[in-house]
Amino acid sequence: MSNTNKEVLLSVKHVDIAFNxxxxxxxxxxxxxxxxxxxxxxxxxxxxxxxxxxxxxAILRINECDKGEIVFKxxxxxxxxxxxxxxxxxxxxxxxxxxxxxxxxxRATIExxxxxxxxxxxxxxxxxxxxxxxxxxxxxxxxxxxxxSRYPHEFSGGQRQRVGIARAMIMEPExxxxxxxxxxxxxxxxxxxxxxxxKFKEEKGLTYLFIxxxxxxxxxxxxxxxxxxxxxxxxxxxxxxxFRYPLHPYTISLLSAVPMPDPQIEKKKELVVYDELxxxxxxxxxxxxxxxxxxxIFANDREMAEYEAKLQVMEKEHEALGx
Amino acid sequence: MEERKAILSAKDIxxxxxxxxxxxxxxxxxxxxxxxxxxxxxxxxxxxxxxxxxxTxxxxxxxxxxxxxxxxxxxxxxxxKLVTDKDWEGIRGAKISTIxxxxxxxxxxxxxxxSQITEVITKHQKISGEEAKKQxxxxxxxxxxxxxxxRFDEYPFQYSGGMRQRIVIAIALSCHPKILICDEPTTxxxxxxxxxxxxxxxxxxxxxxxxxVYITHDLGVVANVADRVGxxxxxxxxxxxxxxxxxxxxxxxxxxxxxxxxxQLGTKGQDLYYITGTPPSLYNKIKGDAFAPRNEHxxxxxxxxxxxxxxxxxxxxxxxxxxxxxxxxxxxPEVIQNLHEKILKMTSKGGAFYVEHE
Lengths: 323, 358
Ligand SMILES: Nc1ncnc2c1ncn2[C@@H]1O[C@H](COP(=O)(O)OP(=O)(O)OP(=O)(O)O)[C@@H](O)[C@H]1O
Ligand SMILES: Nc1ncnc2c1ncn2[C@@H]1O[C@H](COP(=O)(O)OP(=O)(O)OP(=O)(O)O)[C@@H](O)[C@H]1O
Ligand SMILES: [Mg+2]
Ligand SMILES: [Mg+2]
Prior knowledge:
The complex is a heterodimer. Chain A has helices at 52-59, 83-92, 110-121, 127-140, 157-169, 187-204, 215-221, 239-244, 249-256, 263-268, 301-320, and strands spanning 8-21, 24-37, 41-45, 67-72, 75-76, 93-96, 175-179, 207-212, 224-229, 232-238, 287-292, 295-299. Chain A is of the alpha/beta class. Chain A has a single domain, classed as Rossmann fold. Chain B is 29% helix and 22% strand. Chain B has 12 helices and 12 strands. In chain B, strand 9 and strand 10 form a beta hairpin. The two termini of chain B are 40 Å apart. Chains A and B meet through helix 6, helix 7, helix 8, helix 9 and helix 10 of A and helix 8, helix 9, helix 10, helix 11 and helix 12 of B. The structure holds adenosine-5'-triphosphate (2 copies) and magnesium ion (2 copies). The site of one magnesium ion has 3 residues of chain A, from helix 1.
């Protein structure tokens, strides 16, 4: 599959994000560079502290970019922009958070929680219109209009997360940044929320940036995956491609950590530990470069040659397996 | 099979909580034998009673709750009879120790790591401060803290999440417990660190020889650590067996549902299986099988009469009418049939989860 005829919705262009820690500058995100196509689910995967949320927040204009820029529908949205465009971005890009409890105002009714964005931007004709919109949003996430008068704590975790999704959906966004939307949920409820997100993607052509630290979930939901380590994107590929030809040692380490529901296999499993300090870092500075169509890897020329050799072996193996 | 020695034996445990003017029954007549040196995992969705059940082993129920029936035998004592902190001395935090989910809440943020470990050591052993410090540093090294002596005087915020959880483990093990209860010990951690912590607990178990009880809703974790598994639903254990029996030959429809909803087994472009409806309210008396309203295979009798445990093998029991000889034959769902073959394929060369080792 080629990406040439796909419409780019969002571009993160050579973005650096730094924080000041007691006077010292800390680069939380280093030269992040990727496109998200309209209608796809783009996943950002990496361990805790790798900079995933920081990138998500930069897209929502909460974090500033130190270098580079972010472009949404052809227009720059990072840095200084007009008030009108700011409003437009806040509306078109919505976020779903990890912790469904913390993201809702506990003292407000569900009706208010869901209407908040409508109020803030006066996105309704009259009261009747607002109520219709709230009811529609509730129904679309599998809740009932009669739930409107309840408070968040009267719902289960999965239901609260669905309220969070309704709250985002009512704004009719084009892009949703979902920051570990299911990590805090029970296994059985996770499935519901993932199905729901897929439903909106299909029905409304919604685009997602899906943040996770677990590759097993991502394989199921993502079209493309970017693997991030210590603020640096080390590999990007289509989901199938990444699982078929994982190349970067950190990607392989993440893959080896996926828990499989099979005791015989799981008990024999060996973790591949990725230790950046033990790597051979000689040679010129590495950059993100394309190794197979749509498959990018962070490497210098020496490493590139190694990856290419490895890739050839893998391709032969897949051929031998008849695929 | 050889007779195994039960180190702890819970019988017909019932736990009730008082909430305003009413009572809810969180645990409904649960029995469990823990064997010496084994790893037992308890799985089930949120609210099924996993934490409450194991809290009865250490007398840690909140003050509005109490054990209203049953007994827990441990070293010749009935733990349900213990009341005061003094009664529990030498057992809670010593012979039976617990690790909780969030390492940040188990550690005091304004005290050094070292002082928090030595405090527990000196509480249970009559030794000098110097000796306690030596033991603490030794423990820190054992749980994988590099340069332990130098990091002894640091505070929790100077440690990463994974390192903090290692300290919590060190504290829990400082008194050489007979039973270690791990209540969702890795859910707050990311996958790579999770695997390392699980491995650490396993190694320490070999070395120090204790019985481990894992509480989790992640079946991948269960497959990794458990010898035996108990599946909880609505305040009861509804199925238990060896880990292989539970994964390869599950018999309770709730166990089927839990396994089927794993994203690892999902096919892209198709909906994942999920359990409809919500868990039962614990305020009302539950009639029949608690899972019946959510069970697509429910029989008429499931709504009327509570099923007994049916024996599958000497080690495997399930509480479902489907095992009654008169019940119609129902196959487990397609996605979890031939589970081992499927996962073997996924993790072998050419499969999505194949990993090459150097
Ligand atoms: N406002 C801030 N000030 C200072 N440092 C920050 C700030 N926000 C994030 N950081 C640091 O930036 C790094 C990346 O953090 P980020 O929250 O993006 O990680 P993450 O990948 O989302 O991790 P997790 O999986 O734990 O959510 C971390 O080292 C974090 O401590
Ligand atoms: N102090 C309390 N007062 C009232 N109800 C309680 C109390 N503690 C627990 N419960 C109830 O008892 C039931 C079992 O709770 P428990 O904490 O054991 O669930 P769990 O299986 O550990 O769930 P989770 O996976 O969310 O930790 C729940 O319905 C819970 O709301
Ligand atoms: Mg984050
Ligand atoms: Mg619990």
